[in-house]
């Protein structure tokens, strides 16, 4: 589904610069939850942004291939990329308050995705927005649709953003620290929702997080990122039970 | 007993609704009784909105309470005015959740620590500079940090600065309100290790507030679980983990340990009017 090979990205400066990502590669299969785990500054977010080609122009991509369903994303034109974002690959960001536009109602912002990517009529779109909000576990969707982002609680906002990300039925969802600002009770509920997205909507998920505990019972595979390098990867159970890398062991110790 | 709360209550006025003659108030803290002994670390755990932070603010008298009593160092501080509270707050410090908004961006670290030192009105300026350097070293920062501004530091480093500021007073009780929640897991561990080291050195008692039982476990000898303004269970930490009794404690445990939703019904309700009953040695359950 998604294949990343040999991806290296550098921040240039007067000297040689600093490598943000150092020959990173992994594959995500269909209907798989793939977790990318590492500390802050390890380059996790950069990978997510690179897939969507949303990286800052200042960064230099030195090498690498990013393939989505066999097509080379790096060769896509800007227009083709725009058509792909949201339609084929959805994204959920860490801070939903910043990701939403504060001036528009939540429903309208979900509708925007539908307007751009689908040919549904106005009435159908309206129904679909309500449907999406219910799907992510917002019971009073009719009310929530008419609220502004700041009127929602953190957990609700994160759900609304997931609803927006899956609006155009993408095949892959990139979730970058989707629950880091939420309390554990809500985190558990969001993880439950991800499980549902995978089993019912057959969406593959790239879950980016610093918290191993979060992915322990959820992900199929894991890659551990340390200072821009993948230091360990494999089936989640295998890595959790027999970690080989010292950094993985350190991460594991934080969740006991 | 270092700190004792007796039936502390705080209500916030609820929203007025059309055609509803009675306004329903939010009971943020509902008749909470709690004791913190010298030298023990009490973890206060509950989901967001359960009243943890309000309780902390009531203890510091940053928010006035409706009824009840707060006894600190054997003295009833519930009726003290702001002026009389000031000397008491030296022994009762707080580290806030968000290290990005709790440090004044216009002050250097030297200024931040100095402001706290000035409240103590103590000896020479030489001694003060030495104390600042010593405190920074104690929290694992270098001396040159003194001349830098908060924005030059990472979240974890800022939290270290906030801890250093609280330690200026050498307080007997330090309230840590979600002090590590916004940090990444590795930095969380570092700060928790630091708090352990500091305790050996300064003999401060911690009231550790968190939404995450797994983190609270690392630092607390006893845990109190709060739900909708009520304490629903308190027990020594390991006892609580081995034998959680209240359904809400169980839900919190499975969320914190495995990120699993414990029960099918999302919204657990709380029966009012029950009381804490001792189920085992030091193990109290609201039932």
Shape of chain B: globular
Strand content of chain B: 15-25%
Strand order of the largest sheet of chain B: 6-7-8-3-9-10-12-11
Q: Kindly report the average pLDDT value of chain B.
A: 89
Number of helices of chain B: 9
Q: What would you call the shape of chain A?
A: globular
Quaternary structure state of the chains depicted? heterodimer
Low-confidence segments of chain A, given as residue ranges, are none
Helix content of chain B: 25-40%
Order of helices and strands of chain A: EEEHEEHEHHHHHEHEHEEHH
Count the beta strands of chain A: 10
Question: What separation lies between the terminal Cα atoms of chain A?
Answer: 33 Å
Main sheet: strand order of chain A: 6-7-8-3-9-10
Beta-strand level of the residues of chain A, as a percent range? 25-35%
**Alpha-carbon distance between the two ends of chain B:** 26 Å
Biggest interface pair, residues each?
A-B, 27 and 25 residues
Largest sheet of chain A: 6 strands, mixed
**Element pattern of chain B in H and E:** EEEHEEHEHHHEHEHEEHHEE
Folded structure, characterized:
The complex is a heterodimer of chains A (256) and B (287). Chain A has 256 residues and is an alpha/beta fold. Chain A is built from eleven helices and ten strands. In chain A, the strands form two sheets. Chain A has a six-stranded mixed beta sheet with strand order 6-7-8-3-9-10, with helices on both faces. A four-stranded antiparallel beta sheet of chain A has the order 2-1-4-5, covered by helices on one side. In chain A, helix 4 packs across helix 5, helix 4 (106-117) packs parallel to helix 7 and helix 5 (122-135) packs across helix 7. Chain B is of the alpha/beta class. The longest helix of chain B is centred in the C-terminal third of the chain and has 18 residues, at 185-202. In chain B, the strands form two sheets. Chain B has an eight-stranded mixed beta sheet with strand order 6-7-8-3-9-10-12-11, with helices on both faces. The relative contact order of chain B is 0.15. In chain B, strand 7, helix 6 (185-202) and strand 8 form a beta-alpha-beta unit. Chain B is 34% helix and 24% strand. The mean pLDDT of chain B is 89. Chain B has nine helices and twelve strands. At the A-B interface, helix 8, helix 9 and helix 11 of A face helix 6 and helix 9 of B.
